[in-house]
Design goal:
Shape: elongated
CATH architecture: 2-Layer Sandwich
Radius of gyration: 15 Å
Largest sheet: 4 strands, antiparallel
Strand content: 35-45%
Helix content: 25-40%
Number of domains: 1
CATH topology: Alpha-Beta Plaits
Low-confidence stretches: none
CATH class: Alpha Beta
Number of strands: 4
Order of helices and strands: EHEEHEH
Structural class: alpha+beta
């Protein structure tokens, strides 16, 4: 295990359909923008949109990539996202299984 900052990041987005979430993950991995991804859901999200409080059912896609590929992955997700203002958040990975972190890096080369 490593406890130092790594080059790996997680990029997360949510969408209104399991099929869309799975397609985003599959296509990002196929394009080598992410080494892997998971889809969670359904989730219940509550947010303010155009002056109203809304509640919706969504699915979360979490993708693993490197910091150097994150900008391209973010653009990829935003370009294919069904929302007007998509949530696309990137979080650095502070540590983890060194072999896994290297596998992620190899997966996006």
């Amino acid at each position: 295990m490593t406890d130092a900052m790594t080059d790996v990041v997680q990029v997360v987005t949510v969408v209104d359909s399991a099929d869309v979430a799975h397609a985003l993950v599959r296509d990002a991995v196929a394009a080598r923008l992410a080494a892997c991804g998971q889809v969670d859901g359904p989730l219940t999200s509550t947010y303010r949109w155009e002056g109203s409080v809304e509640t919706a059912t969504e699915w979360r896609a979490t993708l693993k990539t490197t910091a150097s590929r994150a900008t391209d992955l973010e653009a990829f997700l935003a370009g294919r996202h069904p929302y007007d203002v998509p949530e696309v958040l990137t979080t650095p990975v502070a540590g983890g299984n060194a072999a896994y972190l290297e596998w992620v890096a190899r997966g996006v080369r």
